[in-house]
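## Example record

The block below lists the input lines for one assembly entry, exactly as stored, with component labels intact.
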Amino acid sequence: MSSSVNDLQAIADAVVAQAQPDEQIEVQVSRSTETDIRVREGNLEHFVSAQSQGISVVVIKEGRTGTSSAGTLSDEAVAEVLAEARENAELGSYDEWADLAEPDGVPVVKQELWSEKLASFDTAKKIEIAKELERIAVSSDHRVRIDDSNYSDGATERAFATTKGIRASSRSNHCYATVSTMADDNGETQTGWAFALGKDPSEFNLEEAGKKAAARATRLLGAVKPPSKKVTVVLDPMVTAQFLSIIGSTLHGESVVKQRSLFANRVGEQVASPLITLIDDPTDSRAYGAHELDGDGLAARKNVLIENGVLKMFVHSWYSARRMGAATTGNAGGCGALQLMPGSKSQAELIADIEEGVLIDSVQGLHSGVNPISGDFSTGASGLMIRNGVTAEPVREFTIASTLQNMLKNVVAVGSDVDWLPMSAAGVSLVISDISMSGA
Amino acid sequence: MSLIDLSHDFDTSVLERVLAKGKSTGAGFSEIFIEDKRSMGASLDDGKVEQVSNGRDSGAGIRVINGDTTGFAYTADLTEAGLMAAAEAAAAAASTGDGGVHKISLHPMTRQKVNEVRILPSSISKKQKIELLSIANEVARGVNDAIVQVSAGYSDSQRRILVVNSDGVFATDEQVRTIFRVSAVANGDTGMQTGYDSLGHTIGFELFDEESVEELAARAAQQAVTKLRARPAPSGAVPVVIKCGSGGVLFHEACGHGLEADLVARGASVYAGRRGELVASPLVTLVDDGTMSREWGAIGIDDEGHASQRNVLIENGVLTDYMWDHIRSRNEGRAPSGNGRRQSYEHLPMVRMTNTFVLNGTEDPEDIIRDTPHGVYVAKLGGGSVNTATGDFVFGMTEAYLIENGEITEPLREGNLIGNGPQVLADIDRLGNDFAMGNPGTCGKDGQGVPVGDGQPTLRVKTMTIGGTAS
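Predicted structure tokens for the full assembly:
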């Protein structure tokens, strides 16, 4: 435990100490700071510097649950939040499974979530980073201009306490830089973007990010609307990561017990191509979503969800595990660190095996076109046609559609190009056949 | 603990000192945005009232503009010391080192009330609110044996804001919103299907005297049941008829965002430099109206202290104006349009829509369907998104049917539609006379969500690409 969060832990402990014998109480207290810098055309457009704090309380009494939260930590606010959570608990329905987690003895795998170097990084240099990223993107192609170039960082301290004896505090910080580009040619505009990541800004690869943002925009110039037909697609690692996050949500025990999972009752069955082995491993420090504790305050752990295409398990919180008569998997809060077991070929090698298909660079409208309950999958897309094993003309303003069930089964290859993206899943190139492309 | 009385609890001289501190490093403009928001929510899922919760957020965002640079800091500490510290941080962030002594004098403005709230939600017991959830659950489950799951959510919020700035603006508003949502899952031979509906207005608990939770729940459940016999949507370009009150999101995405002056100024909109030009079918007159009483995007003032107003953006197909916030209108030397909004005191304001809608046409909607030999009828749209620089946008259809020989026939499975804004606007070839506002929405931009409304009469787009799987 770091000493700076002692005052937060004291607030959490003090609330828990007020529990009546027939009450369970869980308290989360946090304090965070953020810096957000935006640059355009060499000028600082905005600089946001801020601090915030918050408390949230869960009260369970006689099987009824109430919650309350506030954005300040004054004594008055803390007392009010507890009183409201208690009042709200009187109003909840009786749920025989309502219960806070008990320590289950699984050891915590320590993660390096705090960088002292980032915490003491010079502010003027942060502005320079955003300017430098803009310079690299613009200078890499004369057709490219900048929408915006940004540097962001944040630090959070948290304390957690429950009447079941779980106490934990932690602190974490993060930083990233992003750039959005536009490329113009013959009255047409296309857009691109990229980001740089690191434990601290000295780890940023600005050169790669700037060039990638420029290339994404320029390579779509001249894009046409493709015809409507069934095709084989290669999902770029970022798109695969988005797809895996949706799959992960369907494998949560809470979805199963509430009859919302399309994989309910299918453990042990072949639900995907044998090439698919899907793991959630928040103890893998390479994952952006690596963490030590889940939302119940229990140790995060590695779980194999799908192995060689066979559904092995659902992930559970303390609550969903109790309802299903299973053990928690440390997934209160969902899957934060999904990854596919990689294959042996690079993206270029995967493309070389395809006579005709489409490389999907980006998708648009996942929130409106994908239904994780019915499994319907339909999104806007842009990318490059693949002909005779190489990428050809750019294409845009089309959709790709299938169902989540069929997409998992129709995976033809998994790439070797694992990319630890700042998302709840790592990316990797994925080849899927029999996708409906809708265009002209 | 009650909400802060923003117009009286703050000493004007304190606010003036904080604004002067904001300008102390050479900035030409400083602003304090104070917010006090209380919310209450309850949700029912799986037959149980699961979450009864309260939220309380209050704080101040201080913005300092120096040339083209904005410094911003926020704090939950509303004492003079807390506000001064935030003003100092914002001023340092936008510093040019010029310094100087500043004197500010504030002029309180008469509050513009766009609607009356008859029953403050905080005056109603939580128990009464929760009973609505149980009613929705029972009604939805009673619609059909195929309904296997129902969830329902109630929430209300009361948000007070105070905006003061170094130009002398002193404005307050109180915004009360109440919303109710129902979603249902039906299970059949072909798997599971979902239904969803919501109602929400910028009013209090009188919402439930005016609208029926029972009807809402029945609609959501029926939508899920109907979709059990849905077949895959077509793949490719077809004529699309969009039902009144369900397709405002089309305009929100096809042109609304592209008419926001911040995106226009950055050259990130296909509508930049096109004022006075024909950008849509002459049938289309598009309005953004923050004064539209009761609607989800209604506001008395925007989050920069300017009174909301009705703005005509496209008139008979001709682009007449963009939407403006403080920075962009100042740069153009024109009046703001009441579109500077922010999610909370922790956020910088941006140009945002309020209630965006297309005015009525003249045709009988029945005729529009009858004159469409083959196409898709969209009865309910989901969310959407747009790339304003290219104009390409998508939106989801959550309830849709085939049109065959001028009649609505089979239900279709969900999917996205994709189009290019200027092209789709030009392709609107029929417009009905049955204008209706749609469901309450949340518009996301640059990571901030704000409540918005939309509406339109039944209309037809000559051709749009539907992302289904049927060939």
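Residues 235-467 of chain B form one domain. The first helix of chain B runs from residue 6 to 9.
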